[in-house]
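Lab channel / #folding
Pinned by the channel admin:
"Please post every new chain as: sequence first, then the structure tokens as a reply. Keep commentary short and put observations after the output so the thread stays searchable."

First post following the new format, from NK:
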Amino acid sequence: MLAFTFDDYAAAARARGYGQVLEREWPPGTVLDTHTHPFDAAALVVGGEMWLTVGAETRHLRPGQTFELEAGVAHSERYGAEGAAYWVARRGD
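Reply from TO:
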């Protein structure tokens, strides 16, 4: 269990210059092929598990782990058997 709330995460992200903070949930087994976003993203995994691939590196992320992506960085995502949930802060969209 996390020691802080979504509101705590959102307040900290906004203090770092992120204008939008969302809760995202993905169904089990979802695969998102290589794509980019027009915004910087900073996220905290809060449920399930996911695999994030950037270039030749794949990270297996579980609750409590974070990831950041700059705008325009090509990446793919795969979500586990239970799906996944994360809080994501966006800047520049």
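NK: The longest helix spans residues 6-15.
TO: also worth noting, Strands lie at 20-26, 31-35, 40-54, 57-61, 66-69, 75-91.
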